[in-house]
Amino acid sequence: MAKRVELYDAVVVGSGPNGLAAAITLARAGQRVLVIEGRPTVGGGMRTHELTEAGFHHDICSAVHPLGLGSPFFRQLNLARYGLTWIQPPLPVAHPLDHQPAMGLERNLERMVAGLDGFDGDQWRRLMAGPVGDWPQLAAMLLAPWPRPTDPLALARFGLGAIWPAQFLAQKWFRGAGAQALFAGLAAHSMQPLHWPLTASFALVLALLAHAVGWPIPRGGSQAIADAMAAYLRDLGGEIVTDQWVHRLADLPPARAILLDVTPRQFIQMAGDRLPSGYRHQLLAYRYGVGVCKVDYALSAPVPWRDPVCRQAGTVHLGGTLSEIARGEAMVWQGQHAPHPYVLLCQPSLFDATRAPAGKHTLWAYCHVPHGSFLDVSDTIEAQIERFAPGFRDCVIAKRVHTAVDMAAYNPNYIGGDINGGVQDWRQLWTRPTLRRTPYSTPLPNVYLCSSSTPPGGGVHGMCGFYAARALLAHGEMA
Ligand SMILES: Cc1cc2nc3c(=O)[nH]c(=O)nc-3n(C[C@H](O)[C@H](O)[C@H](O)COP(=O)(O)OP(=O)(O)OC[C@H]3O[C@@H](n4cnc5c(N)ncnc54)[C@H](O)[C@@H]3O)c2cc1C
């Protein structure tokens, strides 16, 4: 029988940050790599497009990149050489409130402490000072296949706060409504009810990142990260084909290994009957989370914030107090649309003139909605913006809505609109997609998963792809 000719050492399906990170890691190790992407352009959750009108460049998915700048993998790459420029807005995050000044999350820890009331300022320092100094060690431990205690003291200092439900920690730790609300807005990135354990860890990591590296946006939009990674990969000899959906593993070109930047549900379909039934059942039991409804606006003017602090921030968290945000997030988990949702906003054109025609602006907004929601909730999002920026609706030239179902149609990895590739609670953070010694490996020889459905989970950091490729290099056929 003729020997099967293997053109590539590895084929990577999907060009999200993790697919590209896996491909780059393999290419740097001298492997011949092909990336196959279903959509016409590379990037996964890092694409920028004129979604509303000509000249308005909107980030379809990710927009703000504390995890990107804080990622040990990204730090190894010189993406500036390929055109990536980070912009740091003066304030990483603002959180407006109804009857008191907006809260600002400062980059500088001492300025942050000084901006809070005496007691809460001291508490903020107590919570953050140690872990901020420990960030490089923490990043290596937390953005990893499991939290390896290479620096047990740093992990313990972080873990003492991180294990708690965000709602409990915020109420116990801070006295002022402002500090509590700010903490809740950060914790709500978890996309979980704030009375769940470990939700405080999301607030802590995001606050630490603000102090340690900032919350930057890429000049030109998130596509700039994707384009820089793709250019680097090509320089390393890697190949990329786009506009080619992969439906079955059997359709892939011959290769010694396959890495899949997809979630368990697509993997089951691609593998067909090749998966052992035990593993297949484990994948079927994998849990996906709530969805998002995303709205992109073209504006005739900047958002008319009542509190000018909000104008300084790249990201603005809306939703009011801790209890309001906690209530809204809990409702979404119960399958209801929150009438006054927690809303995430990014206003990139204030800091990056390439995003909109002169004098005009783009605004990126989303809120959490029940899994699989097909509702356009842009009205409730706008009501929340109007609450803190009266006159906002008058600035809207055009808008484009993606419901949770639309998001899933746009990218098959967003099952039911879940943007993290699966729930990231304590049961599934380090056992994604299943409990395995090497979570990236599968029972199929040399077939690896490398998406955000593997540790350390969602966000643009490339660490899932990096570790999947490392696992293949260490244990796979390439070892
Ligand atoms: C609205 C929104 C806002 C977000 N905001 C942020 C943010 O500000 N900061 C941040 O860090 N993260 C953010 N995220 C999350 C971040 O985008 C994701 O966690 C990240 O992109 C996951 O990377 P990935 O490589 O695992 O998968 P993806 O980025 O989803 O990439 C998967 C790729 O695989 C392709 N693909 C899938 N199936 C197939 C197939 N069968 N054949 C061929 N190709 C296929 C898809 O087209 C896609 O290009 C946001 C996401 C969304 C949706």
How would you describe this structure in keywords?
five-stranded parallel β-sheet; 479 residues; binds flavin-adenine dinucleotide; 18 helices; Polyamine Oxidase, Chain A, domain 2; seven-stranded mixed β-sheet; FAD/NAD(P)-binding domain; alpha/beta; 16 strands
The rounded distance between the terminal residues' Cα atoms is 27 Å
Rg on CA atoms, Å: 22 Å
Number of helices: 18
CATH topology-level fold name of the largest domain:
Polyamine Oxidase, Chain A, domain 2
Uncertain residue segments: none
Overall mean confidence score, pLDDT? 96
Largest sheet: 7 strands, mixed
CATH class of the largest domain: Alpha Beta
Strand residues, percent: 15-25%
General form: globular
Looking at the overall shape, the CATH architecture of the largest domain is Alpha-Beta Complex
Structural class: alpha/beta
How many domain regions?
2
